[in-house]
Specification:
The complex is a heterodimer of chains A (about 230) and B (about 190). Chain A is built from ten helices and two strands. Chain A has about 230 residues and is an all-alpha fold.
Chain lengths: ~230, ~190
C-alpha cells in the first residue's frame, strides 16, 4: 500500500485514537451529545492536529530534546487559540455548543501523543498524512458516538427529527443525552470491540504497568516511576 | 457569603468535574485502580488546582485583561500550570519529603490533567473574582477527589465479581462511572 494511504488506514482503523488507543476520552464523552457536535469537534481537532504535526515535524531538528514538551505545548496552544478565534468568528453556533472544550483541545492527549510518537521522527509530508488519518479516526468515532446518543436520546439524527414518523407512544430516552449516557455509550463501544476481539491499547497498558497511559507524557512518567520503585 | 458556599458546593457536587463535565477522565479511569493512589492523586489535585486557580485569577485580572490580551489566556494558563506543577514538585521535595513521597509521582500527571486548565478557563468565563476563583478551584478539586475515591472503592468490589468477558476492564469501569453520574445528577435538585 502507498505509504501515504497507509497513514490514513492506520489512523482510521488500525490505531483509531478513540476506540483503539483510547486517547482523548474527555472530549469524546463531553461533546458527543449530537452527531453534528461530534463532527464539529472532530474537524476542529483534526485541523489543529494536522497543523501541529506539520509544524513540529518541520522543527524536529531545531527543538532541543530536553525542552521539547514545553515547546510542543506552546505550538499547540497557539494553534488552538487561532482555531478558537476562527470558530468564534465564523461558526458562532458551534462555538456556543462546544464551549470550553475548544480551548481544551490543547490538553487533548491525541495531539501531544502524536507529536511525541510520530511527528518528531518523520518528515512533514508523512506527519501531515498521519494528522489527517488520526483526525479522521477521531472524527468518525466522535460522530458515531454522537449519532447513537442523538438517536436514542433525542429521537433525531444529524438534526433531522424522525420521531414525528413514529407512533406517539415512542419516546426518546432522555438519559442518553445527559452525562451518564456518554459513559454508557462509550462502555458499549469498548465492550463490542472486546467481544469481537480487538484489544485496546488501554487494556494492554493497564495490564502491564497499571498506568492509565492517557498520553505519551503520562505514560513516560509512569514508566520512570515504575523503574524508580524497583 | 451564601454565593461563595454555593460556588464551592456546585463545584464539588452539582457540576462535578468528572461525572458531569468530563474533565480529567484519563486519570479518573487510570488511577482509580488502587484506592491509595486515588486518595494521593486527589490530594495532589486539591493542592495544585487551588493554587492554579489563584495564580490564573491574579494573572488574568492584573496582566492579561488590562493589556487586552484575553485571547492569550489558553497559552498563558497552560504554561503557568506546567511551571506551577514543577515548582510545587521541587518545593515539596525540599521542604516536606513525606508529602512528596505520597503525592510525588502524581504531580507531573496533573500537568496534562485537563481539569486544572478547565477550571481556570471556567473561572474566567464566569467572571469570578479572586476569592470566588480560589473557592471554585478548591470545590472542583474536592469533587474530583470524591469521585475518584468512590470509583476506586467500587472497583475494588468489582474485581471479585464474575463478569461477562467483554465487559471486563474499561467497559465495566465506564458503566460504574455512568451509575455514579446518575447518582450525582440527584444533586442538581439542591437549592439554597
Amino acid at each position: 500500500m502507498n505509504k501515504y494511504l497507509e497513514r490514513i488506514y492506520n489512523g482510521l482503523i488500525k490505531e483509531n485514537p478513540t476506540l483503539v488507543l483510547m486517547l482523548g476520552m474527555c472530549p469524546t464523552l463531553a461533546v458527543s451529545t449530537s452527531a453534528m457536535n461530534g463532527i464539529g469537534m472532530g474537524v476542529s481537532t483534526t485541523a489543529v492536529l494536522i497543523l501541529s504535526n506539520f509544524v513540529i515535524s518541520l522543527l524536529r531538528n531545531v527543538i532541543p530534546d530536553d525542552v521539547r514538551l514545553p515547546a510542543y505545548i506552546v505550538i499547540v496552544a497557539s494553534l488552538v487559540t487561532v482555531t478558537e478565534l476562527m470558530i468564534e468568528a465564523y461558526l458562532p453556533g458551534l462555538y456556543k455548543s462546544l464551549g470550553i472544550y475548544i480551548p481544551l483541545i490543547v490538553v487533548n492527549c491525541i495531539i501531544l501523543g502524536r507529536a511525541e510518537a510520530y511527528a518528531n521522527k518523520h518528515t512533514p509530508d508523512l506527519a501531515v498524512m498521519d494528522g489527517i488519518g488520526m483526525g479522521l479516526g477521531f472524527t468518525v468515532a466522535l460522530t458515531l458516538a454522537g449519532l447513537v446518543r442523538e438517536v436514542l436520546g433525542s429521537g433525531s439524527a444529524f438534526g433531522f427529527n424522525f420521531l414525528q414518523y413514529l407512533p406517539d407512544s415512542v419516546e426518546p430516552i432522555g438519559i442518553f443525552i445527559q452525562p451518564p449516557g456518554a459513559f454508557f455509550v462509550i462502555a458499549l463501544f469498548i465492550a463490542i470491540m472486546n467481544a469481537i476481539g480487538i484489544k485496546t491499547r488501554q487494556r494492554k497498558l493497564v495490564e502491564n504497568t497499571g498506568c492509565d497511559g492517557c498520553c505519551a507524557t503520562c505514560a513516560q512518567r509512569c514508566e520512570d516511576a515504575e523503574e524508580e520503585a524497583k | 457569603m451564601k454565593s461563595l458556599i454555593l460556588i464551592m458546593i456546585s463545584g464539588a457536587l452539582i457540576n462535578n468535574v468528572v461525572l458531569n463535565q468530563f474533565l480529567g477522565i484519563c486519570s479518573f479511569l487510570g488511577v482509580s485502580k488502587q484506592m491509595k493512589a486515588s486518595a494521593s492523586l486527589g490530594g495532589a489535585v486539591i493542592f495544585v488546582m487551588t493554587i492554579a486557580s489563584a495564580v490564573a485569577s491574579i494573572l488574568y485580572d492584573n496582566v492579561l485583561k488590562p493589556l487586552g490580551l484575553d485571547f492569550m489566556k489558553t497559552i498563558v494558563f497552560i504554561l503557568v500550570i506546567a511551571a506551577l506543577v514543577q515548582i510545587v514538585e521541587m518545593f515539596l521535595k525540599k521542604t516536606s519529603p513525606a508529602v512528596y513521597k505520597a503525592l510525588g509521582i502524581y504531580l507531573p500527571l496533573i500537568t496534562t490533567n485537563c481539569a486544572v486548565l478547565g477550571v481556570a478557563l471556567t473561572n474566567v468565563q464566569n467572571e469570578y473574582n479572586f476569592i470566588e476563583s480560589v473557592l471554585a478551584g478548591f470545590g472542583t478539586a474536592v469533587g474530583f477527589t470524591l469521585a475518584i475515591v468512590l470509583l476506586a472503592s467500587i472497583r475494588s468490589r468489582i474485581r471479585e465479581e464474575d463478569l461477562p468477558a467483554p465487559l471486563r476492564g474499561a467497559p465495566i469501569v465506564l458503566i460504574s462511572a455512568a451509575l455514579m453520574s446518575i447518582a450525582f445528577m440527584g444533586f442538581s435538585g439542591l437549592s439554597f
